[in-house]
Design goal:
Elements: E1 4-6, E2 9-11, E3 16-17, E4 36-39, H1 40-53, E5 57-61, E6 77-84, H2 91-102, E7 108-113, H3 120-126, E8 130-132, H4 139-146, H5 164-168
Parallel strand pairs: 3-4, 4-5, 5-6, 6-7, 7-8
Antiparallel strand pairs: 1-2, 1-8
Length: 169
């Protein structure tokens, strides 16, 4: 089971991803109760039903999913989980950056999947604020080592909109 880091501390994860089994479709999958991360296809197919049946709604985005497809719906989501299926797949960084900068998404952005402590510093710079570490990884070590990779950054980011030369002036 993955460990969740939220606000630089180990946290309990109450959210579950809705899995679509073989033979099911977004239109036919049963919608469970509770804190559910709905895949984009399910959200698009059953948005009205989800809104009427859930007080807290989460969204699960895969690397190929387009943020533009949910730009008008962002107010419904408490958390948006962005999947990193492989360590080398960096599309989730762009998705997070778009959500924070272009669409001003204020809710929780969660990195899920193949998330390692090496990525935490960079993930927080594009707007992630919670991280479900890959199974078997040590969350305490990740907190200690992952956020302090560099002491200072030159470029602007979601968390630090001013580049270093402007901060020094």
């Amino acid at each position: 089971m993955s460990q969740l880091i939220k606000n630089r501390a180990v946290a309990v994860d109450a959210w579950q991803k809705l899995e679509i089994a073989e033979g099911e479709t977004p239109e036919t999958v049963a919608l469970p109760a509770g804190d559910i991360l709905f895949p984009l296809a399910v959200w698009q197919a059953r948005k009205t039903e989800i809104i009427s049946g859930h007080k807290r709604i989460g969204l699960w985005l895969e690397p190929a999913d387009r943020v533009e497809d949910v730009a008008g719906d962002l107010d419904y989501f408490i958390v948006i989980a962005i999947n990193f299926p492989k360590f080398v797949d960096g599309r989730g960084y762009s998705t997070a950056s778009l959500l924070r900068q272009r669409y001003a998404y204020p809710g929780e952005l969660r990195a899920v999947g193949d998330v390692l402590h090496d990525q935490l510093f960079y993930m927080q710079r594009v707007g992630f604020d919670s991280y479900a570490l890959k199974d078997g990884k040590n969350a305490v070590y990740a907190i200690e080592a992952g956020f302090s990779t560099f002491g200072e950054t030159y470029q602007a980011s979601t968390r630090q909109p001013q580049p270093l030369f402007r901060r020094r002036a």
